[in-house]
Amino acid sequence: PIRVYMEVFFVELIKRNIHMDHIRVQAVTQFTLEDDVNLPENKPDIAALNLEKGEVLIDEIKPGTDAVTVRGRLMFVVLYHTQEEGSSLVVMEGRLPFEEKVNIQGVVPGDAVTVDGKVEDLTVNMINSRKLNIQSLVTMTAKVEELYDEEAPIGIHGDEKVEYRRMPLNLAQIAICKNDIYRIKEEVALPSNYPNIFQILWNHISLGDVEFKVMEEKITVSGDIHLFLLYEGEGEEHPCRCFETAIPFSGILECHGCREGMLPDIRYRLGQQELAVRPDFDGEERNVGLELVLDISIRVYEEEKVEIISDIYGVSREVEAVSHRANLRRLLSRVTGKTKVTDHIHVSGGTVLQLLHSEGTVALEQQSTVENGILLQGSVLVKVMYITGEDESPYGSAQAQIPYQYTLEIPDIASEDMGEVHAEVEQLQVTMLDGEEMDVKAVLSFSTVVFKTIPVELISAVNVSELDSGKMSSLPGMVVYMVKDGDNLWNIGKKYYVPVDALRELNGLDSDELKAGQKLLIVKGS
Q1: What pTM, to 2 d.p., does this model score?
Q2: Residue 170 pLDDT > 80, yes or no?
């Protein structure tokens, strides 16, 4: 780093705050939920299961000492086939309440703890035509995030003759840290050749190409809503129809303090989802209204060049710097990457006549730092629903867990620089090869913001004392010094209590570069 040497006659640190954020404590736990659930009396008997999905809702977070108690619910939805008269496909909804204790060392009752719950696996089995067994593996992450300031010395003033040097650093400071929500309201109409909606049986909503941009006093958000509907149409036979579309959306989040050029690290999660069938202008049930809520974690950073006082010594008195270890940071990389995965799904005990729907969920199970990158390992869970053409069981479903391994390239990354990686299925294509085999192709997208950790010794105070007379008398009044490897004007001046400018002027030096074997004249008190 470039060092600038200055001489002043006072010893008091001028400091500025470097705004930082970090995860103070964090813990991850997994637990299993299992229960037998009876069908409501108004639901027909189950002939075969088709699809299921689950979501974890957190109702209460109660921090204690070194532990957090979390109460919530697993909300599940099951689509099944019945052979009773009327609708052939039926939806059943239910919930499994839970209360879990998460051990998290260092948490105290007053902490603001955030908890995120994720369904890793959901298995639904028939016990009989009126009872289901629900099993789920849930991963829960609890953490406490904190904002804090590091005081960095940027100047000195006072009445003592001292030498100090500056060290320039490119730093990324936290400018905005908050959580927000963004509401999306859209309405989509069925194509003219589709029947009116009698009832929606199944839906799947996901977001793609979501992008956030920092503007003056606001953040813009844009992306696509991917909507799949399986519904019963109006008519005597209630025909089942599939409808799939992509709806673009865009909007603005008010964000005081934002400016163009700041660095966003914004995460989102699709929260509350509501679908409603609405009449069109002719009063026909052909429109679908969407109301979605995005839970958004906003972190916006500002990059700045800061020169801090890195070292100090006295000339006429002993000046001792009191310092502490601190970790600052700079932006290392904002990076995205994509990888393709392929596999086949074999269907046993039936024939695939037509594909109805496919959906994929990517799980990031392990990430580790490797040379110049982050190694990502996990799997993609692909679910497919199809028509069999058989009267007794006209619908079937299959799924596959497809592993992947991908390295997100980030030059110069170290293990302590790890960033949070966002993963999503960008594209999914499932095609029939024959009546028993399906081909799966998916494109996975990954993104992260990585900060480089900068360990520094920050001077927090300066102690001034009289020079030790014995020590000073042992130093020669004049000496010819032979430069050794690793020497520089700073450490030579510090050793002999001589200003750097004096060394430079006395020896006619045009720069601070020294070579081993070079001779320097040093005069005490110069």
Answers
A1: 0.85
A2: yes
